[in-house]
Amino acid sequence: MEKLLAKVKQRIESLAVELEHLYNDHPDAVIGEITIKNILGGMRGMKSLVCNTSFVDPYKGLFISNLEIPDFEDKTPEEIFFLLVTGSLPDEAELAELKTELSKRSQVPEYVWTTLKSAPKTIHPMTLFSMGIMAMEGDSVFKQKYDEGIPKDDYWKYTLEDSLNLIAKLPALAAGIYRILFMNGEVIESSESELDLASTLTYRLGFNRHNPSFADLNRLYLVLHCDHEGGNVSAFTSRVVNSALSNIYLAASAGLNGLAGPLHGLANQVCLKFITNIHDEYGNRPSVDQVREFVMRTLDEGKVIPGYGHAVLRVTDPRFTSFMKFGDQHCSDSPYLQTVKKLFEVVPDILKTYKGGKVANPWPNVDAISGSLLYHYGMTHYEFYTVMFGISRVLGFCAQNTIARGLHQPIIRPKSVTNSWLKNYLEPHPVS
């Protein structure tokens, strides 16, 4: 993997020079202020972390390097990982080298399947996915090399080595979990070594595998969910854990445990349940008025409309738009997609005015549509959708942590304060 190593090394060195100049020239520069609203609001909006793999513009959406959607929506997961970790898309030779490396590393150890098959069938697939990754932690090259006393300058190389070993196994691991929990338990072993990550996932799931649009949906899913800055729950958790030099298996598992929450990656499951509830009440072809009635009733009951709003975005999520374009091309008659469209027609206008219109962002995010497309293609167990999200997001975890180790970024350790400290700071005792 000489080409990849050279490109990553070049990027790390370039970023290190930039950071050195910034640190030397502006060591005490103030880039913002921290308010009580920031502290009590989950640190929302606080600029406190450097992430060079991606960024989110509130009005344009996700950028990877300088590419935005739709500039990279036609790429493969392999190309996206290369872009995340090097800052540029691979040429033909670089892509071929990366695919070869991943293919060589794709075999999931038998002990992992033994571990996962022993779990109760009631377990959530995200738990199994995290367990499967954790089970492979003993194979960490970084851990072995760290114990041997490698220099700090080499940390990134073995973080990248672990990352390639992990990423290569994710499609087979995820597909095996689907079959263990929801099918006959037989794990499919691929005999086609040239399959890429998305095609391997499609093949090993074992259903609808000859439908090229399903394979393309899996490719698009793995591309669009790959990264979203460093401050979201899953990426930030992964960065914090890896900053303690916990290896990438531990860091990825930790990030996925954050992704499994209903306010983060599990939201796609919640969104499909919401659509299913609409269909249960009105049938699979509800009218716009019926959808509007259901939305209003949901809000009046004090509940939120899943899939609408975003911590950063203030426009329709371009990932939503990309999935919508896919749906219009490949499954425009899907009842679930049609309901997604009707929700898109009514929800933003309702949220803009409901009880004074206090919603900062009434527009849909990616979760509002992603699960509906998977359901259409036969992935009817929507508990699995967050695992699909997780396969993709590990690409970002690995890239962010590889670069962080290359830049010798320190352990992440913000300062916390008590209520008493806040009160004393804000309400000092009057002078006697």
Write the H/E string, N to C: HHEEEHHHHHHHHHHHHHHHHH
What's the pLDDT, averaged over the residues?
95
| Multimer state | single chain
CATH topology of the domain at 267-376: Cytochrome p450-Terp, domain 2
Specify the overall morphology: globular
State the CATH class of the domain at 267-376: Mainly Alpha
Amount of helix: 55-70%
Number of helices: 19
Strand proportion: under 5%
Alpha-carbon Rg, integer: 23 Å
Tell me the CATH architecture of the domain at 267-376. Orthogonal Bundle
Structural class: mainly alpha
Number of strands: 3
Widest sheet, order of strands: 1-2-3
- Low-confidence stretches are none
Span between termini: 71 Å
Major beta sheet summary: 3 strands, antiparallel
CATH superfamily of the domain at 267-376: Cytochrome P450-Terp, domain 2
Q: Can you give a write-up of this model?
A:
The protein has 432 residues and is an all-alpha fold. The chain has a domain at 267-376: Orthogonal Bundle (Cytochrome p450-Terp, domain 2). It is built from 19 helices and three strands. The protein has a three-stranded antiparallel sheet. The longest helix has 28 residues, at 155-182. The protein starts with a helix and ends in a 6-residue tail after the last helix.
Distinctive features:
3 strands, three-stranded antiparallel β-sheet, mainly alpha, Cytochrome p450-Terp, domain 2, 2% strand
Can you give me a brief rundown of this structure?
The chain is an all-alpha fold. Helix content is 59%, strand content 2%. The protein contains 19 helices and 3 strands.
